[in-house]
Amino acid sequence: MIKDNQGIKSKHIRRKSALREWIESAVIAGLLVIFVRTFFFQVYKIPTGSMIPTLKPGDRIFVSKLVYGALVPFTKVRLPGIRRPRRGEVIVFVPPQEVNNFFLKRKVYIKRLVGLGGERIEIENGNIKVNGKIVVDPVIAKNDYTNAGPYGQGVITVPAGKYFFLGDNSKNSLDSRFWGFADDRHIVGKAIFIWWPPNRIGMVE
């Protein structure tokens, strides 16, 4: 029996070509995922109960980076966003105690934005007061806030370019009452949607 060397070579070339196409497709898909996560949206899993009842441990959420503008990796440049963060929104950010850690080891927090730069914040009888007036927005007023930590007592003025964040589950939240203020350039994105588990699917409000 005579072997067809040309046929063997042809099969070998086809196999190499198929393998190369698969590798190229995997690389392109990986780069696309990185691009989308960096500039558009990212998925997070809620690890603690600090935002109960809005978010519960195990909830998986979509976080939009388009709303406030994504931060360009390894720079201090933020791309133009749709608008600035607003009081009452649930936001993912890097707290001040984490910003000097290596970026792969930084922990991000998710809390509700309560105070903007230049505002005077006070927790009084479970309510939030901004510039002396009680906040009546339901997403904030529905929660009972406790006085705790060095920044949770008396009237606190939020520095310009900073934000004051609180957890909805105030008694079990490590938030701005304890570590102070998050910087504008360390905002990651706005929590938009709970996509898992099925019985929790819905918008984050």
Layout of strands and helices, then pairs:
Elements: H1 5-39, E1 41-45, E2 60-64, E3 90-93, E4 109-116, E5 120-124, E6 127-130, E7 133-134, H2 138-141, E8 155-157, E9 162-166, H3 176-179, E10 182-183, E11 187-196, E12 202-203
Antiparallel strand pairs: 1-2, 2-11, 3-4, 3-11, 4-9, 5-6, 5-8, 6-7, 9-10, 11-12
Give me some keywords for this one.
205 residues, alpha+beta, 8-stranded antiparallel beta sheet, 4-stranded antiparallel beta sheet, 3 helices, 12 strands
Mean pLDDT: 88
Largest sheet: 8 strands, antiparallel
Q: What amount of the residues lies in strands?
A: 25-35%
- Number of DSSP helices? 3
* Unreliable segments of 5+ consecutive residues: none
The string of secondary-structure elements, in order, is HEEEEEEEHEEHEEE
Give the overall shape, derived from the CA principal axes: globular
Question: Structural class, from helix and strand content?
Answer: alpha+beta
The helix content is 10-25%
* Rg, alpha carbons: 24 Å
SS elements, strand count: 12
Please report the distance between the alpha carbons of the first and last residues.
75 Å
Explain what this protein looks like in three dimensions.
The chain has three helices and twelve strands, in the order αβββββββαββαβββ. The chain is α+β, with helices and mostly antiparallel strands. The radius of gyration is 24 Å and the shape is globular. 24% of the residues are buried.
